[in-house]
Amino acid sequence: MIRGLALTVVTALTASLAPTAAQASTPTTQCRQTQVPVQVTGTQEQLSATLCDPGDAGTVLVLFPGASYDSSYWDFPVRPRTYSQVRSLTQAGFATLALDPFGNADSSAPLSPRLNASVEAAALHQVVSALREGRVGRAYSRVVLVGHSLGSTIVALTAARYDGIDGVVLTGLLHRFDPVDTVALFTRGFAPAASDPKFADRGLDPGYLTTVPGARARFFNALTTEPDVLAAEELTRGVFPATDVPDAGVLIELLPTTGLIDVPVLLAVGEADRIMCGTPPTGTDCSSAATVRSAEAPWFSAAARLQVFVLPGAGHSLTTAPGTRQYQRAVIDWARSYVEADGGVR
User: Fold this and answer.
1) Which domains does the chain have, with CATH numbers?
2) Contact 176, 274 (CB under 8 A)
3) Which pTM does this prediction carry?
4) Surface-to-core class of residue 230, CB atoms within 10 Å of its CB (0-12 exposed, 13-18 middle, 19+ buried)
C-alpha cells in the first residue's frame, strides 16, 4: 500500500513538472522559453531560460540557481502560489529570467574542464547585456541578479567584475560556513550525473555532478519541510560542473571580492541553514539579521548598502521553505526600495 501511494505521488509530481515554463503564468503575465547565446572560451554555447513578464516591467530579475538545481528552483511545481518566487515577483510587477545553468534542460553542456565560476560569470554578464539591449524579449532599464548558494558566488563575481547591474540578491551564501557539513556534502553527497538514470542520455562528462539519494536533506530543515516538497526536490534535481567550485571558493569565500560590488546588496539566509550557519568562528550565527550583518558587513563596501534577511526556521534552500512567502516579500520590498527608487544604473 505504501509503495503504491509513493508511486501515485511520484507519477502526479512528474506530470506536474511537464509544463514548468508556464507555472508562473497568470492572466497578466506571459512566460516563454528562450535561449541566450553566450561565448564560452571562444565557442558559442547557449543558456536556456524562462522569461516571464507582466507586460510593463522596467526591472528584470535574473535568477541563477545553486549546485544541482535548474530553473525550477525559482518556479517550484508544488503549490506555486506559495513556492514559486517567479510568480510572486511577476505579480509584484517585476519581470524574471530564470536560467538553466550549463548541463541543465536545453542549455549547452560544454566539457566541464572548460567551465569554472569565472567563466560562468562572464557568460552571465553576456545575459545581462542581452537583456539591456533587447535581445531577450524587450530592453529592460534595470537588471537585478539573484543567486542561490553556488549560484550566488557566480552572481557575486559577475557584479564585482562587470557593469550593467542595478542590484544583487545573494541567498544561501555567507563568508563563514560550517566546514564539517560542507565537506560531507561535497565528498558524500554528490556523484557523477552520468551514472544517474535521469541524466544517462545527456552525454555529460564525469565532471558534471548531481546529488545522491538522500543528500538533498542537507538543504532543508527536516522538522518543517513538507513531504511532497521533498519528493519534488528529488524529481527536479539538476547538475553542475564540479570545476565551478574551486575558484568560487577562493574568490568569494577567501578573497574580498564582494567588496568590489558597488550596487545595493540583499543577503538572505535560513536561520537553520546547516551549511552556512553554526557557531563562530566557523559557521555564522544566523539567529538574527543583526548577527548575520555583523559578520558579513566587513566583506562589503559602503556602496553595497548591505541589507540582511533571515528566514526563521528555514534551511539552506529558501524557495521551498514553509515560510518562503516572507522571503519573497523581503526581496520585493528591497527591490522597490533600493533598486527601483534609485532609478537604475547611472
Assistant:
1) 28-342 (3.40.50.1820)
2) no
3) 0.91
4) middle
